């Protein structure tokens, strides 16, 4: 399902930015779907990657204002002895207490958006990939409206579970607890301009990314000329 010849501006523009000289492709997908594998490939083609997962780790660094806010909201138990965030404890808490997840996101998402915007302003590649697991879910985080197109990396739930549990040695139960806080495949794919089914090997993933990359280069050129 790819609208590869469509205008760089989506037919679903309500939440997307209207004018931006640099084409920003939002890359999303469920846990373990293959977002990092896809963004690593785009990076190898010279495309700047803004990774919301990486930013989400950076904004809660030891001593950061965001981590202090989390500590004030939840208590000292969110910290390890060295003052860094106890990610496992926070994960267990928020993915079993939906209201706590909302409170955590209310603190982290504005910080993630600000950092993403700063990275976007500093980017120099022909177009930019903004990778975010919650690009569509977290509308209030406002990441989707930084993007002109949305690319979804899709995989079956069984494949997601298998890949995520092999990668992190996390229990299937923990991964399922995260998955229930993410959109279903069908709902996510409905928001996509381009969907890649990542159900075979990495070579098959890369072969599907190549024509999209060529299309994004063309769209990025069009956007640049339109804005000049
Ligand atoms: C809950 C936290 C502490 C767990 O940390 P942990 O190191 O165990 O996991 P990590 O951050 O690497 O995330 C692993 C995966 O969980 C999923 N995930 C992360 N946050 C969320 C969330 N708020 N809702 C649903 N899924 C999420 C993503 O698929 C992500 O790739 C951490 O994920 C977090 O701070 N989340 C809130 C910030 C956020 O929304 N990040 C997503 C990027 S926009
Ligand atoms: N087509 C594939 N064939 C084999 N392994 C794959 C394929 N795609 C991804 N993987 C592997 O599956 C694991 C999960 O992929 P990846 O880390 O890219 O997912 P993700 O969507 O970024 O996950 P998360 O949301 O948890 O960050 C990784 O170990 C990755 O190397």
TrEMBL record:
GO terms for molecular function: ATP binding; dephospho-CoA kinase activity. The keyword Nucleotide-binding applies. Pathway: Cofactor biosynthesis; coenzyme A biosynthesis; CoA from (R)-pantothenate: step 5/5. InterPro entries: Depp_CoAkinase, P-loop_NTPase. This is Dephospho-CoA kinase. Keywords: ATP-binding, Coenzyme A biosynthesis, Cytoplasm, Kinase, Nucleotide-binding, Transferase. One of its GO terms (biological process) is coenzyme A biosynthetic process. Catalyzes the phosphorylation of the 3'-hydroxyl group of dephosphocoenzyme A to form coenzyme A. It is an enzyme of class 2 (transferase). The keyword Acetylation does not apply. GO terms for cellular component: cytoplasm. Belongs to the CoaE family. ATP binds at residues 32-37. It catalyses: 3'-dephospho-CoA + ATP = ADP + CoA + H(+).
